[in-house]
Amino acid sequence: MTAQHEDPHEDPRRDQDPEHGLDEVLLQARPVRIAIWAGIASALMLTASIVIGLLLRGTNTGVHFGTYDQFALIGTGVILSALIMTAARPRLRVTRDGMKVRNVLGETFFPWPVVHRIGFPQGHPWAQVVLAEDETHPLMAIQTMDRERALTALRRLRELHAQYAPEQVAAAQAQAQAQARRPLPPEPDRPLGRLEIIDRQKAAQRAGKSGKGRK
Known about the structure:
By secondary structure, this protein is α+β, with helices and mostly antiparallel strands.
């Protein structure tokens, strides 16, 4: 199949992935709100460390801070700022071959045949790539904080998954239907509470009295 090249300005979801040659990127997603908050926090941290480092001379107690201490403080601020910005690293790139997921640490490529479904459990901060045997991998590029943007990316990703991995989608739907039809397990035995014991004793007494009355 020949890749069709389009102007990236016409559709922001399409781009060329330099790491995969001519593979066309059908969808690209990044977290937005967390990146903004991380940028603000990182800038404040860096500014504070530089200002304090430059003003750090001495104290009323006679403690003197040298040039080395100033550079050490500023360097610590730079490192902390860089660590904060790792919250903006997550990225998702989808091609015809699969999806490339980059989280805070590391990057993983998932071919379509191994992707069972794309999940977003209620209460979770980000989506998940569900593999065989319900093994999951976090998809931090699609986060709850982004709301409509995240919902749009999730829908588009599921559409691409259904297009390029129809067998996996059908298997996931069949599994969900089978689980829905499965009867609920019996309630496990548990110790009776005090009120339940009293109710059962009274019911037994009433049954005994009614039996005697019939005789």
